[in-house]
């Protein structure tokens, strides 16, 4: 959905997603800032190394560059959520108006906590704002774009103020999950040589059990997850101004040719093309 937004050259978008069958959303790094509000059903989400069992009223704050994957249960009840997606450029624009426009996202990234679980009345009010935003994004009425921007700004203000007012514990850590320490280790050491055998020995798995559990929960193989994480580090380095032919040195690739091939295969653009399009 976020990819479609960028292809339409929109800097922000809101919408509603409804899944009526169980399924997997493979882990991938977000290229946009995302807010998600659950309005029906439940699902299990991984955000970085945090595992969340989401329920109605929950709000996820996902900064750009963060790895996200999900398992949709859909046991007799659809999983429905409202989402808002904002490009890097749009957030930069918002921060020019107010340098704390990204307060909630910045706090989530700094703490490594991404779940906002509010009292029922506050959760219902925010869910209403998400729904109104989704409706305006899909509307062709007069001034719908102006209305959308106003609603989005107000929604960010509400979330930022709640995150500030409710103290350090407003964003919740994930649930206990055996895979969490493995993911934490990968995130901290992904530029170093990593293997299924080595991780299995370190975290008391058999190699086959670790490979199976990882694929089942993350929707992708451990090898591919490490590759995505390395590419994400390289991508962020390029967008921060690091020369393309030096970025690979920061993300665990042995040479530029290997980085170039992996990057182009994963994102459909060469590193140079990607940097030019997104700067």
CATH topology of the largest domain: Jelly Rolls
Overall shape: it is globular
Name of the CATH homologous superfamily of the largest domain: Regulatory protein AraC
Helix/strand-derived class? Answer: alpha+beta
With helices defined by DSSP (H or I, 4 residues minimum), what is the helix count?
12
How many individual β-strands?
10
- Whole-number tally of structural domains: 2
The top level CATH class name of the largest domain = Mainly Beta
Rounded to an integer in angstroms, the radius of gyration calculated over CA atoms is 19 Å
Largest β sheet strand count, sense and barrel closure: 6 strands, antiparallel
Q: At CATH's second level, what is the architecture of the largest domain?
A: Sandwich
List segments where confidence is low: pLDDT < 50 over at least 5 consecutive residues.
1-9
- What is the spatial order of strands in the main beta sheet? 1-8-3-6-9-10
Tell me the span between the first and last alpha carbons.
Answer: 21 Å
Compressed to H and E, one letter per element, the order equals HEEEEEEEEHHEHHEHHHHHHH
Please indicate the percent range of residues in DSSP E strands (runs of 2 or more).
15-25%
Mean pLDDT: 90
In helices, the fraction of residues equals 40-55%
Which features would summarize this protein structure in a list?
single chain, 279 residues, alpha+beta, Jelly Rolls, Arc Repressor Mutant, subunit A, 6-stranded antiparallel sheet, 4-stranded antiparallel sheet, 10 strands, 49% helix, globular
Quick overview:
The chain has 279 residues and is of the alpha+beta class. 49% of the residues lie in helices and 20% in strands. It has two domains: 171 residues, Jelly Rolls (Sandwich); 99 residues, Orthogonal Bundle (Arc Repressor Mutant, subunit A).
